[in-house]
Design a protein that fits this description.
- This protein is mainly α and 1379 residues long.
- Helices cover 64% and strands 1% of the residues.
- The chain is built from 62 helices and 6 strands.
- The strands form 3 sheets. Strands 1-2 form a two-stranded antiparallel sheet.
- Helix 38 runs antiparallel to helix 39.
- The chain is globular, with a radius of gyration of 43 Å.
- About 13% of the residues have low confidence.
Length: 1379
Amino acid sequence: MECDPAFVKEIDAKAARGDQLSQGAARCLQAMRSIICTNGCAGSSAAYFAASVAALQRQLSQKGGLEQGPEEDRAAALLLILRRALPSVSASVASSRLNDVVAALAPVFKAQTGESVTRQALLCLAIASEICYAAGGRPNRKVLKPIFSLLADSRKSVRHQAELSAISILKKAAAAPDQQTMEFATQHLVQMLETARPDKKGSEEIPAQRAVSLLRAVSKVLPAEHLGIIFEALAKLPALLGQHPCCTAAFEFVAEHFAQEEEEEEGEDDEAMQTETDTRGQAEKLPLALKLLPGLLSVPVTMLNVAYVSAFASALSAVAAVLCAQTNESLPKGATTQKIAAVKKLLSLFSERDPTLLKAAKEACLGLFKAAGTGGDCALLQELLEAVRPLLRFEAKGSWPHALPVVAGLFEALGAIRAETAPSEIQAWTLAYFERARPLVSELTQARDKARTAELTVFGKELSQCIGSAVSTFGPEQVLQVAPLQLLEHSLSDAGYEQKSRSWLLLILKDSVRRASLGFFAGTLLPVASSLKARASQAETGDAQVLSKKYLTLLEQVWSLLPGFCDEPLDMQGALLSQAGQFAKQLVAVLQNEPSLRDFVWAGFKNCCGTVLEPKSSLSSALQDQNRSCLQTLSGRVMPEMFNAFLKANAESEGQDASRVSHSRQLALAAVQGLAKLADPNFVGSMFKSLVTKWLKATSGDATASVSEVAPLGDLANALLPHLPVELLQLALKVFGPSLKGSAGGEEDDKGGAVASAQKVAYRAITNVIRHPEAGKQDVSEVLVLWGTLRDARQTCAAAALKQRLLAMQALLSLMETSLGPQCKNPAVKQEYVQCLTTLMPEVLFHLRDQSTAVRDAARECLHIAATTAIQQELQQEIVTLLSAGLAGLSRHSKAAALDALSRLIYEHHSKIAVELRSKLIGVVLLLLEDRDAQVWRAALKFTKVVVFVLPKEALIDQLPPLMKLFHSRHLASAKMLVRSIVERLVKVLPAETLEEVFPKDHLPLLQHVQKQLARQQRPKAVRDAKAGEGDGDEEPEEDPKASRRGSRKGSKAAGAAESYESFKAGDEGDNIDDDDDDMDGGSGKAARKRARGRDEGEGTTTAASSGNRKSREPPTSAVMAHGAVQALLDAWEAESDSEGGEKGGKRKTKRKRGEVSAASTWITEDQEVPVDFMSADAAHSVLTVRAPPSKRRKGTEVGNAGAENKIDSLRRSGLRFAEDGRLVVDEEKAEAEDENSKSGKFNVGTDSQTKPKALSQLAAQRRARAEAKARARSARKGSHIVKGLDTFKPGKKKAQGDARRKSKFEPYAYIRLNPKVTKEKFKSKATESFSKVVKGAKKGVLKGMKARVKDMKHKKAAEDKKRRKAKFNQKSHKPGSR
């Protein structure tokens, strides 16, 4: 009926498409419709709602109303109608019938019904509760009790739906607020937790598991007092269940709830509001942490379940961190003791050896220490300096890779507190805390001194970071008291020089020094550097070049510490200005005379300026004024010397490494800019005048200046330009403006590149003038003068200066956006702005496809700024006209560039452009889909993709006929991935019937294929999981929608609310396009394909694998897959991976010809003399969609059982052959001979009647036997080590032993080839069995080892010596004749 509500029509439409549940609901609706019409009522939503409630009550109240079969289907259909009717009626009507709805649904929850019926009933209850809240009412317990009772249901889908319903109701109750519902939910959750029993092994069978899952979703909306009761019940779970997975999940939830990093809301929040929210959240968590921490401390920890202990460590750390973030004055008396006990319990876990557990313990301790440092819990951190010392014992060395970062985190927490200390107290604080940390630092340095090289590969990085954290916290002067440097006390030729001199400490100091005393460097380390330099000079004089080089390396390492000492120094003014600025003079002298040490001085000045301009801590903020005054005093004397050093360094850089020269140049300019920001503006102006005077002399060829100084002088002038007074900007334009025009003879007359360098410098200067802070306050005429300067220099711009020119144009457009944009209502200003765009836009369009990436990026940014300004100032018609003018260009380059610009314009501003103008523009551009040029057609295709993604549904339907012309292009095969994305978008947006009407008939199978794939992706996750469990290979693994939403939120935070145009078109270059098709990236498509090839090779041809998965979704024998359009699309997905994945990075042997069109073709492969038998089973293998490569004869290939090498040989052995006309011929002579042999009876009793195998058959049998023997040997070798050489040199005679030495062979040797797969403990028996052939002494009774054998030999020799001495003595004492 026409008067039926929308939900009724939707159900009827689904029923017409074949949905079974909707068909049952349609039959029920027909019965309701007849009753409504009979009673003379209107077919409103309220009428259908009342009819569905009445019908449901009658259906479920009767006996057998929920029996499996037709009755259950009828109940499901009625529940569907009720679910769709509830949102359609007014809230007051639905709220008034809530009790009737609950009474009607009660039988569903009492009886054991099907999953679909129960889920439908839960959905109805959830919707009814939401409507009740919307009407200002409150649902009673009859609504909540069935939902919470089903949280522990045995059916997974029912549990999931009950959980979703409970989450929806609790969120509405929190917003209401509904205290009664919150109390009921809390009581039910506590009951589920307290009734947990360990007799049920499966975690899903325990109600507590469902309670924890629900708590993860609703903990943020539950009141704090209710959460306290729930957390007390959670703490008792380990006593009830032990180390059960449910307890693991509970600990993970506790850790997530108490974590300090809260998820940021989308968009930019006010900082003060965010801070207030965080403070309130911490205040609400504090009482919960105080209640929960004693329970967690009483939980026994055993290492039976690593996941359980890891989750417990995370929970304990998160709860203790909440207490550490508070001051001790605001905590109860026993809270400090509990915090220390929690930390010690975490530290005790480092006695274990499981890497997963050690990692969890490390992360837990680091999180707790960070909270203590942020909260300023000095008492706890002081206690921990002694508590972590057992982690450094020798017996705990195996856990050092995880324990040392914990010690480093402790030092960093103390460093965070030190950074907030007042400057007057910093020295006393450092001395006091270092006195407590001295034994710990001493043990760390001793461990580094005694560590071996092999040990450093295991924990060397962590140990260095730990010592570095101590240096950052307490300062190098304190650490060097414990471990002093002795660089000069030991000889460099000593093998242990690194440990004895502690030169290893220099590298740690370089990366770790900050907030230290700059005077310590000047007074302690500079004398060491001077001595090292003297030693180097002495060694060089003595012709010891190697020794000299080592001393110079140490010298550079000592000077490399300077930038760290200049990072937030504690005594900048005292160090640089004391003794009449002696230290500053030393730094300037190094700049002038020490080329190898200049970079360290540049970096030092840069860090000093950065500390003043952007303080990083409260300590730097407190010293900011003092440090600023110091640098302002030094700037007048240091900056001229800096300029001279920069020019000198540029003159000495010829022939040096370009990357090092560029790095040094950037450091120097950054230091100059930092001082220019702090110096007096008048002084900066005078320095600028001096620089531009020298620059003019160098560019004009003056004899007093060198041409090589053009670039460095220009760099220095540009470094000062942003900090000049506004009255000197005109001087900059007058000086650098003429250089924009270059030389009259062009680039041919530019000897040495001086003119190009001057032009680049001039463009940078114009850019800096435009970006000057005071430039936005200029009049319209002055802004237009800047444009005139750039406009006149367009024809003379050198290729090397093109990037700088576009950057200048970008800066000018930004200036016009801020200065001229608001004044565009003035007709004169508007006309001037349009005239500027008319001259500027063609140049921007031309460079959109430039070969240089930097030029393309600058051109795109210019286009974006110009289009945004024009759209905001109601200049839509003008900007569209300017961009569309390129479509009338004579070259394909101009057309493609215009299409790229229009694509970006439509994508970014489609909602702001007038509908009529947008439709007209789209209609004109879509005509280019019929263009015969590949580059233009592809650009038009990208525009088409933008159109289908941004246009609304109604406007897109009108553009379908011209849009479908893309399928008629001869270049379709080169952009099939673009076409696929367009078709997928159309399928998602437009109705299937509308799309099928206009879709080309030849490509309808492709449309049906895409529709089927998208329908599969839209299936519920439970259905997809069930299909995967059943082994359905046609399903594609889908990503988690929640995860994708989280990812999209994170992406939106980084890139804004809308997707950027660059990310939108990121996948457009994945197709195999023509070689002459230059896209908007100007050749980056080819580079992207090369990178893709490298990824495919490195990742095992991922593209081919993914394309294989896509093809496996549809049976290859189906009509859809057999269609040419689908096959062509699938071939395009696999073409690049198949052709390039197997080449292993080599060059392609064949190159695609210009203008060649790829089309789907069919090829039939045949042998040279054997035609294809289309009646055989393998005939389909001879039909190919691509032309096969020339066949090559493979060694060992057999056809048939006779061992033939090809089909011709197989037929010949069977007595068959093919005639020239293709007929099959049977050899009659051979057949007759076989018949005679069979007919003639011969006397063969007692003889071997078996015929001998033919020679080839015998050879095939031998090959087969050899292959089987190799397979047996391979299986015997598998899983063990292999002894090689014993059988090779075995003697020929049976009774002979030892090794046989043969002529022209290697001398006898044997070895064992180890198999890395059996090195694990579980393969111990297999590994030992491998040595049974070699190690036979143990079986013969050799029980003693080498040490015992040597000892026995000593005792035996001693006994023999004693016996010999005794005999000799007896001979002397008993002479002949004596008694």
